[in-house]
Amino acid sequence: MAKYISFNVVGSETSGLGTASTFMNGEHLVPVDQIVEVSQTTAANVSILLSVAVGAASDVILLIPSTTSSGAIAVPTNTVGALLRDSINYSLTANPGGVKAKCILGFDQAAVPLRMYWRDFVQA
Questions:
Q1: Backbone φ/ψ region at 42: left (φ over 0), alpha (ψ -120 to 50), beta
Q2: Average pLDDT per run of 10 along the chain, which is 124 residues long?
Q3: How many domains, the chain?
Q4: How many CB atoms are located within 10 Å of the residue 103 CB?
Q5: Is the model's pTM score more than 0.85?
Q6: Rounded Cα gap, residues 41 and 12, in angstroms
Q7: Dihedral (C-alpha) 73, 61, 117, 42: value to the nearest 10 degrees?
Q8: 101 contacts 10 by C-beta, under 8 angstroms
Q9: Domain of 113?
């Protein structure tokens, strides 16, 4: 498995979120060996729980997708399963022996499927 998962954020400055910024755009690397759990609770939110160090408080990364790469966030239609979580889990096992695996989103489950993009990356 790769050492890092890469999330490419696009159009954050026009997302309408409080964390929106041109500085959020671009590649964000997450060390694979610190990922404890990946969970998806809604069609538009996925959380990655990180264990920073033994005995230290854990961090959470919140990733928000959109079906548009500019303008306000358009919530994807994900009616069956957890596509976002599955994309991240797939990236966790991709690129054996490599340094970086990209987590690229596919299409949502709308009647006319729309391409999804990562629009926000917040670590708390």
A1: beta
A2: 91 89 92 92 88 69 93 87 89 84 92 94 86
A3: 1
A4: 21
A5: yes
A6: 21
A7: -60
A8: no
A9: 4-123
